[in-house]
Amino acid sequence: MQPSPRHPKKPVRPSALQAESLQQTRREHASEIAEDYVEAIADLALAQGEARVVDLARRLGVTHVTVNRTLARLQRDGYVTARPYRAIFLTAQGHALADTCQRRHATVVSFLRSLGIAEKAAEIDAEGIEHHVSTETLAAFERHLRRATRR
Amino acid sequence: MQPSPRHPKKPVRPSALQAESLQQTRREHASEIAEDYVEAIADLALAQGEARVVDLARRLGVTHVTVNRTLARLQRDGYVTARPYRAIFLTAQGHALADTCQRRHATVVSFLRSLGIAEKAAEIDAEGIEHHVSTETLAAFERHLRRATRR
DNA sequence: GGCAAAATGTAGCACATGCTACATATTGTA
DNA sequence: TACAATATGTAGCATGTGCTACATTTTGCC
After folding, report:
1. Which positions on strand C lie below 7 Å from a protein C-beta?
2. How close is the nearest chain A Cα to the Cα of B94, in Å?
3. Nucleotide nearest residue A84, measured CA to C1'
């Protein structure tokens, strides 16, 4: 193959819609964990004044080591503040993200419940689904909920 | 801390429902990519007789290198057969998975469309959502679709 | 046949996530 | 205060996914 030595290699252009969708999904996945963490930190702060590494580990179902490393990344990205051996707190940016996630989570759960899905299954599915719900789809869920309530 | 030298360390037991849900989500994520690949391979086989690495790369929006390594894993796990410089084919197991995914994908898209979501957004969201839809939720989607159709 | 383009393969890097094992700091309490 | 339990931190490994750069094979065509 002629390696076309001039062009540094143009990025693969996915022509298909599916490629675009999958790339979107991959991007979302990168932020899913951040969302889960800030949401958990917000909950814990509310419930017991502060969030500790152990609490997060228990809550998220991972070891404290994983929590620790992920917190370093969240701190790097400006979502939390943390000092060694101290509690973890959300930054303004972290709070904003947490609020968004909590509202979205609640909406998704309510929506699934309104379809007749049992509490536990709704919770489990919502955890997986919520990160992939676009603004448009979330709005559609809310519309549906209003209709269902009005009835 | 007393290291309790006898017990090899019992796995962290997540007491909270959220921990369980998140672990479920992580398990699902491990199989998402396999699902995307077998689905693409099935489509390509139908459309042009066989699936090649380049086709998959274009379709999935990644480089051929990534396709290559992922195919090795899929082969290891029994979903595809592949020989160097040859086309890729699904095993019986791969076909079964592809069928399931295609049906589920179609259901999720139809469902989102029935909520008034535009074609493109429905496709994009479906790619992210479909992997996290439990049997129960999928059934609820189908129920909803039947109701909407009947009307 | 033989050359060039296309396709495929391989090496090696980066990053994210998970883990176990072990080290260190903090804390509760005798 | 001092010890033991708890919490937190660090080192190092595995796996999965993505990439670029380069090597090799296959294929189309003169």
Report:
1. 4-12, 16-21, 23-26
2. 20
3. D8
Give the mean model confidence (pLDDT) for residues A71-95: 94
DSSP for residue A51: B
Entry pTM: 0.85
The pLDDT, as a whole number, for residue B10 is 36
Taking the CA of residue B85 and the nearest CA in chain A, the distance in Å comes to 16
Interface test with B, best of A22, A32, A58 (most B CBs within 10 A): A22
SS3 B56: helix
Task: Give helix then strand counts, H and E, for chain B.
Answer: 6, 2
Taking the C-alpha atoms of residue B62 and residue B71, their distance in angstroms, rounded to an integer, is 13
DSSP state of B16: S
- The token duo for A93 is 């940016």
Q: What is the CATH number of domain B30-150?
A: 1.10.10.10
- Give me the pLDDT at residue A151, please: 61
CB atoms within 10 A of CB B25: 23
Q: Are B19 and A123 in contact (CB under 8 A)?
A: no
Type of residue numbered B14:
P
